[in-house]
Amino acid sequence: METKVKNSYIFGIDEVGRGPIAGPVCVCSFALEKESYKDFVSKSQEHLNLEIRDSKKLTKIQRHKWFDFLSEQKKNGKCFFNFSFVSSSNIDKFGISKCIQRALDESLDKTILDIKNKNEGKDFNFRILLDGGLKARDVFDDQETFVKGDEVHPVISFASVVAKVSRDKVMANFSKEYAHYGFEKNSGYGTSSHYSAIKDHGLSKIHRKSFIHLGL
Q1: N or C end: fewer C-beta atoms under 10 angstroms in the chain?
Q2: pLDDT in tens, 28-62
Q3: What pLDDT score was predicted for residue 120?
Q4: If 0-12 CB within 10 Å is exposed, 13-18 middle and 19+ buried, where does residue 69 land?
């Protein structure tokens, strides 16, 4: 009798938006089939003529190239990813660590559900690679956290790019409503011009009050 082989997937998880003084935090869960993982990475880099790296080490144009490519690959069923946001008001209410964990759990659960739907009830297993201090729920036995994981594991780099571009788009939209703060440029981080705008115009509804240190 033929042994039933489980389909295997590798997940990469990363967050963006831990440090800003405005806007949400975003976590992305990105998954690839283990069998095609290395081939996907090499062919993707060759196709774009662009190395996949930590999103902070890519230019804005490079990040968007990767994001558009990965979004197309997702439509074609070549990869899976979901990202989740938690608002600034909830960050003030519950703390950044709990909000990151909530976004992580949501994005991971959504991605697992997508894979379950593709496999139509068939068995599958997966390994989860996380960046920095991130950790999935204890129910996931096969997980490992890496310092600067987005520089070592491409699947985490993919998650980093998706989370970064997705959050930057949200902040650019917020800049239309809150025009004084330069969110389209600073993405909510506490630059000197951003703090100057707060002193002149006060706080907006998306500022994290628990993160603001004006020194006034």
Answers
A1: N
A2: 999 999 999 999 999 999 999 999 999 999 999 99
A3: 83
A4: middle
Q: In what order do the strands lie in the sheet with 25-33?
A: 80-86, 25-33, 7-16, 124-131, 143-146
CA distances from 115 to 31, 67, 119, 152 (A): 9, 20, 6, 24
C-alpha distance across the termini of the chain, in Å: 75
81 φ, ψ to 5°? Answer: -160, 150
How far apart are alpha carbons 211 and 209 in whole angstroms? 5
In 148-191, where do the E strands start and end? Answer: none
pLDDT in tens, 105-142: 999 999 999 999 988 877 789 999 999 999 999 999 99
Distances (CA, A) of 94 to 43, 98, 205: 42, 6, 17
| CB atoms closer than 10 angstroms to residue 144 | 12
The most distant pair of C-alpha atoms in the chain lies apart, rounded to whole Å, by: 75
pLDDT at 77 over 70: yes
Q: Which helix (H) or strand (E) holds 191?
A: none
Nearest to 55 by CA among 146, 156, 135: 156
Q: CA torsion sign, 145 to 150 to 152 to 157?
A: positive
Helices (H) and strands (E) in the chain, counts: 7, 5
Closest to 205 measured CA to CA, from 18, 24, 19, 15: 24
Could you tell me which of 101, 136, 113 has the C-alpha nearest to residue 25?
101
